[in-house]
Amino acid sequence: MKRSFFTYLLLFLSCLTFAQGRAKYVFYFIGDGMGVNQVNGTETYLAALEGRIGTTPLCFGQFPYTGLVTTFSATNGVTDSAAGGTALAVGQKTKNGTIGMDKGHTTEIKSIAEEAKEKGYAVGIATSVSVDHATPSSFYAHVKDRGMYHQIGKELIEANFDFYAGSDFLKPESKNTNDSKDLYSQCKDAGYVIAKGYDDFRKKSKKADKVILLQKDTANKEDRTSIPYAIDRPKGALTLQDITRAGINILSRNGNGFFFMIEGGKIDWACHSNDAATLFKEVIDLDEAVKVAYEFYEQHPDETLIVVTADHETGGIALGTGAYELHTDYLKYQKQSAGAFSKTIAQLHQTKGKDFSWEFVRQQLQENFGFWTNVPLNNRETERLQKAYKDFCEGVAKDTRTLYESENIIASTARKIMAQKAMIGWTSGGHSNGYVPVFAIGNGAKEFTGRIDNTDIPKKIAKVAEYAQ
Known about the structure:
By secondary structure, the protein is of the alpha/beta class.
């Protein structure tokens, strides 16, 4: 019997698919809170730095396959990071606040990371916040409340993955008197080498089978909840780029391949604070980590899949506030996050005493935000800052509390004015139901196109990597 042209074509395509094989190496990047406008705004900001109107694409923004992702949870039109992370990890929606379980808290649901481990892959889970935070824990823990940090830490050990990284554990000690050992001791008993900072990792990693990479103790004294924002980063601080390189070092020792989830967790934090300059630099920082994975992809193009997405959008950011203009170039003059500037002002208020004058504070605002010299302010805007200074000194203004940070009135007023000058608007200090993007390159990347739900992403990864039973 004669075969038609289409029969031969189908045979050819089947052979081509077979030849391509499974995705041996999977990188799964999650920009927490990174909606479409967080990405577009960052690319617009990068173009503004070049002195032009338009966009300068991020590395992941140039990936050949893209899509739009819906993010609602099983119980809420707007998801939180626990339910959002769980959807991206297990392929099923759940109740807000829940990690790795169904919405009724009756069934534990296996994540793609756990499936990969069972199939013999090396597995790494990394983040720029604490290792027991909502998104990373969605890949290894199963608890009804994301705030059960000590229990989540214990389940991290039980999952027995090959590499973990983040700032630290939030609750290393247990309140249970029968639980005499802290999480660090339990990790060591389970065969983990704990490295503090990237230099320490390089010293210890050669002889280590399993590694937990945390930031230095000196950094933890300042803030154990996360590694510093890119805009605030001191020399020698642990970075998401360091973490990605370290993870590849450990995971690539497994000849079967690996699954590696890396979260840019502080994109979300900057959006909760409505801090545009800090946000854009966090997205750029995530992109720097993606570039490390892309270097690996260039060496293994037929075996590697890179997926970049988000668990939800945060802040409802708008690029333009009605004047048909944008001035994102002004944001380059902001030298600290609003939260860090708030701490700076509070410290100076204590140390300067009577010298903490309006003229002195004006100089701090000029140096840290570029006001008056590079970012022009009118009389009304200057008066707002003067009033904030007066209210701060008189103690009549309460601090502005966002989800993860606190700002005094001088810092919060400066942040709001900077957003107005850049013509960037914010809807809220919480999450929204806006679409988030997905970008993909490599083996199986064509699966991640069109309009899809967040639960589809892990299912597609499991398919192309052959994790599923």
